[in-house]
Write a structure and sequence with these properties.
About 40% of the residues lie in helices and about 15% in strands. The protein has a 7-stranded parallel sheet with strand order 3-2-1-4-5-6-9, with helices on both faces. Strand 1, helix 1 and strand 2 form a beta-alpha-beta unit. The longest helix has 21 residues.
């Protein structure tokens, strides 16, 4: 099988590249990115492209592939709401259209725990609109993964995230029962769940909540 990763330079994407290259189920892993990864592997193929030109991706990159989309930014990095929406909605929807047009096998996409197109919060509203518009594409298979706060070894320091990590450690006893969905998700665990879902999930549309991510990450693939 083939795998395609869009958004491979982010926290989850980097972990996913490493996992899929070590997964013998995939004969080739194609990364579509704006800049080259510092990774060399005989089964890795890197395709550099501006995301504004995603629609130009050829069929051979996607045909019969499991497509993983971990694109995402923040309002702070995007600078404007318009640019945030372009990354977290428009680019993701274009990936979905490529899956349909070029006959990929499925799309596994990372959104966010609070995704809701009716939300009063801009971030959650955009994520919800992205999920809605992906479902309207009638993909062959769509798996949506909604993590809580994503933690891991970032290239940049985020004060709010650092504080949240500390608080979650101190308050680990509080993430029980209905509160378990608010527990931060480690990037490597999310990546493990994505790779297992691609191989094990058979539902045409599946939404995986933050508290289910750890469960999927532990599943065995034979």
């Amino acid at each position: 099988m083939k795998a395609v990763i869009v958004g491979a330079t982010g926290l989850v994407g980097r972990e996913l590249v490493r996992l899929l290259l070590n997964n013998k189920n995939y004969s080739k892993v194609t990364v579509i990115a704006r800049k080259r990864l510092s990774v060399v592997h005989p089964r890795l193929e890197q395709q550099l492209i501006s995301f504004d030109e995603l629609h130009e991706c050829p069929k051979e990159w996607f045909e019969d592939a499991d497509v993983f989309c971990a694109l995402g930014t923040t309002i702070k990095k995007a600078k404007t709401k318009e640019m945030f929406r372009r990354v977290d909605h428009d680019y993701v929807i274009e990936v979905g259209k490529l899956v349909v047009r070029h006959q990929a096998r499925k799309l596994i996409v990372v959104t966010a725990m609070g995704a809701n197109e009716q939300s009063m919060f801009f971030y959650n509203k955009v994520k919800g609109q992205t999920e809605r518009d992906l479902q309207e594409l009638k993909l062959p298979q769509l798996i949506i993964v909604r993590p809580s706060l994503i933690i891991g070894d970032r290239h940049e320091f985020r004060f709010g995230e650092a504080m949240a990590v500390k608080l979650s450690g101190w308050l680990s006893f509080a993430f029980k029962g209905r509160m378990s969905k608010y527990k931060p998700n480690e990037a490597k665990v999310i990546a493990q769940a994505l790779s297992k879902l691609a191989l094990l999930c058979t539902e045409q549309v599946r939404v995986v909540t933050s508290d289910e991510i750890s469960y999927w990450s532990r599943q065995k693939v034979y």
